[in-house]
């Protein structure tokens, strides 16, 4: 699994064509060339990602910080080599798209919560509750809703939360680890379902229980 997506390569069918000495092939249309280039680019990215995955042993253990960190680093290498966007970048794009027309801070924060839930991320630190609490305090002092274009008010909110611009790379790194953990949990869930299904088959009833952490993902690529 590369970010839960699949690349489907269509089969090519050979069509018999009669060739005539004076007949030349029709020139390629601009649209056809563009589609071909897109296909080749996706194919190259897919092959690059699979090639890198085959070189790394990934331990399916979302509860082991070392396994989560290693998986996150592998995914980062794949993104860099295959020129892919990170999950945090995808989430940031979703945030920008879905919150562009939201004027107030409260609706903005509630929308962030919805995006987090849809992305399958957990709020382990209770950050959302802290943000709402800080917002309540500021709006009480302002005696009105905090608007996002209120620079002074937003600066106070960020200061209340202890967020500094220079710390943003650290937050992004934590987000990437959270995403890696969520992806490993999904892999573990899929693996456990596959093991359970296989154990019910007659030919595997005498086999011992398989530990998910012992599986080598490279054998299934």
UniProtKB/TrEMBL annotation:
Pfam families, A to Z: Mt_ATP_synt
Keyword tags: Coiled coil
The keyword Lyase is annotated on this UniProt entry: no
Coiled coil: 170-201
DNA-binding in keyword set: no
One Gene Ontology term from the biological process aspect of the record: pollen development
The organism's place on the tree of life at top rank: Eukaryota
Species of origin: Lupinus angustifolius (Narrow-leaved blue lupine)
Signal sequence segment: none
Protein name per Swiss-Prot or TrEMBL: ATP synthase 24 kDa subunit, mitochondrial
